[in-house]
Amino acid sequence: MAAHKPYSFLVHPIGRFFGPCASYKQPVEIMSFSYDDKRNLHMDDRELKYYYPPDLENCDLSRGYEKFIQREDGSGPAPIHSLLDALAHTKGLSQDKNLTRADLVSWRGIFTKILCTPYNRNEPWELGATLWNNTMYMMFQEHETEYTKENADGATPRHKLMIYWGYKFENLCTINKPASQVNSVEDPELLSRKTSVVNTN
């Protein structure tokens, strides 16, 4: 197997990109898939959560930190497999062969990283990409650079706690049933959010 050739894309000067904005369309959901608490993949929306405003007066983002369950493969972009499985599953169910056609396929976090690059000039990164059937797939694990080794997430106990705060906040803002089914502020679904174990699987 031949070694891959690295390519670079110069961001500056930003003036090179002045011009009309690209047109965007309303997103359309084509498939749902879920990971359960053991990180098993399911082609359905069983892990779908619903937004419900948190009780801000009793919102302790550090609560439960000692029981925090974090997925073993880190906090970077997930591997390509589950998204490709979902796309293949969708193609198998649909008669519309154009339903899953795209120029670019990736995780939302990869697009965020790319779009923030002009403003995060001190955070170099590398990503793997594959072109197949005229679609560019950018979903592989982010390549580790010397910078990311030295500044890895969770490098300090304080940093690990701050990462947990984000997950805990999401936990406090979501429930397992639609808000219309919540009967009162004493609903067990609302009360369990404060004590439930945060599991990023």
From TrEMBL:
Biological processes, Gene Ontology terms: NAD-cap decapping; nuclear-transcribed mRNA catabolic process
Catalytic activity: a 5'-end triphospho-ribonucleoside in mRNA + H2O = a 5'-end phospho-ribonucleoside in mRNA + diphosphate + H(+); a 5'-end NAD(+)-phospho-ribonucleoside in mRNA + H2O = a 5'-end phospho-ribonucleoside in mRNA + NAD(+) + H(+); a 5'-end (N(7)-methyl 5'-triphosphoguanosine)-ribonucleoside-ribonucleotide in mRNA + H2O = a (N(7)-methyl 5'-triphosphoguanosine)-nucleoside + a 5'-end phospho-ribonucleoside in mRNA + H(+)
A GO CC annotation given for this chain: nucleus
EC number annotated for this UniProt entry: 3.6.1.-
GO molecular function: metal ion binding; mRNA 5'-diphosphatase activity; nuclease activity; nucleotide binding; RNA binding
Enzyme class: hydrolase
Names of the cofactor(s): a divalent metal cation
Localisation per UniProt entry: Nucleus
Keyword Nucleotidyltransferase tagged: no
Source taxon at top rank: Eukaryota
Record keywords, A-Z: Hydrolase, Metal-binding, Nuclease, Nucleotide-binding, Nucleus, RNA-binding
Every RAI1-like domain range: 25-201
A Pfam family recorded for this sequence: RAI1
Function in brief: Decapping enzyme for NAD-capped RNAs: specifically hydrolyzes the nicotinamide adenine dinucleotide (NAD) cap from a subset of RNAs by removing the entire NAD moiety from the 5'-end of an NAD-capped RNA.
Family, as annotated: Belongs to the DXO/Dom3Z family.
Protein name: Decapping nuclease
Organism: Acaulospora morrowiae
